[in-house]
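To start, one record:
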Amino acid sequence: MLAHRSMLTEHTARARAGEPTGIRPVHALAGRVPRCALEGAARGPLPAGTHAGRRVTPRPAAGAVCPVGRRGDGGGRALAEATWRVGALWRYPVKSLQGLAEDELTLTARGVVGDRAFGVLDVARATVLSAKRVGRLLEGRVRQDPEGALVIELPAGRFSPGAELDDALSSWLDFPARLVAAVEDGAARYESPVDPEDEGSALEQWEGPEGSFVDSSPLHLLTTASLRAAARAQPAGDWSVRRFRPNVLIEADGEEFLDGRLVGRRLRIGETVLAVTKECTRCVMTTRPQPDGLRAEREILGYLARARASALGVRAGVVVPGRVRVGDAVRVQG
């Protein structure tokens, strides 16, 4: 883990040494914001990532129902015979801001083209912010103007990337902040409270993968069957998919926690093949209020910690790149 230094000192020292910095000031991209981060039309204030960080997961309480259906358990439906479809797709151009619903995504080895290509930098701490630490980021929206340029909507108004946006971010967050772009040859650092119930608790840090501001894995997938199972088990909770910020929502019949059974398997979706690597450990972001009526909902995380080892959804890598579209068949391979 990199020692704590100011953003300016760290960036300058690394640049002079020829080392990757993991971030690039958006000012340096003036007039050429990467098109890969902007493709597709905005569909309105729909969901915005999922994030897990690297935290200690509470052990389930005695007698809790632990996740079932991991590979080899022999229970549930025959996955190879399942008929599933892509129900919805999202990308999140700016980490932890609201995302864009899309009809089609392009996947590469790094994940979704244009997903978490930008982030908000805490200048003093040299970390890229997420709503794990600063929940109000979820109030921000990402739009595109008619020419396809990135537009950020904050409570103070609409801004294009540049000094005016950075000033607005700093005023909104009450500390120096600015929009930065991910670079291919560098990784960023992130922070979240050690205790998700106490935002004033100590912060833990981790370093993400290179080339994107995702927390750990290129893709996040979630099934409707798992969401229905959670809603049946905890009916008082608000289990809106927007809380969980997947890239791919898979329409699957029934009310069964299917996601864990996909770990270690491959999925063929559209032109792509994905390798499901692990379950997604949920964090405090699922409890945050969001625009358009999502209230603060702490019991969701409490239930998942007690009964599901905090897991819902899965992380995946891209084996065969290509395009994925809403309505594409999803087929489980060995």
